[in-house]
Design brief:
Structural class: alpha+beta
Number of helices: 2
Shape: elongated
Helix content: 10-25%
CATH class: Alpha Beta
CATH architecture: 2-Layer Sandwich
Strand content: over 45%
Number of strands: 4
Distance between the termini: 45 Å
Amino acid sequence: MSFPVDQTRAFGKLILFGEHLVVYKAPALVGAVSAYTNCKLEYVDSPVGVQVIDDRPAVPQYKVKKKDEGDKAIELTLNHLGVDTKSRGVKLILAYLLSLSCI
């Protein structure tokens, strides 16, 4: 059995130039996009730990290559929020939504 806890939405960005140079106060060319990811967190009876269901599209093998990095980011975020995954299971569901509009 799962118990919905919270959900949120994060919009995307498009960085055309200067992604890493901004840390040195150099300009970057950035734009907002209407695509976003929904993230839903649920507590589950079992298994204990974190289960991630990532239904977002990606370049082939990208999710596999970045899995450890993503898992670490999720662990740090849940720890910061005080979510104890050692005594209770957590399911994170990531879903990509794109709304297209013509001007």
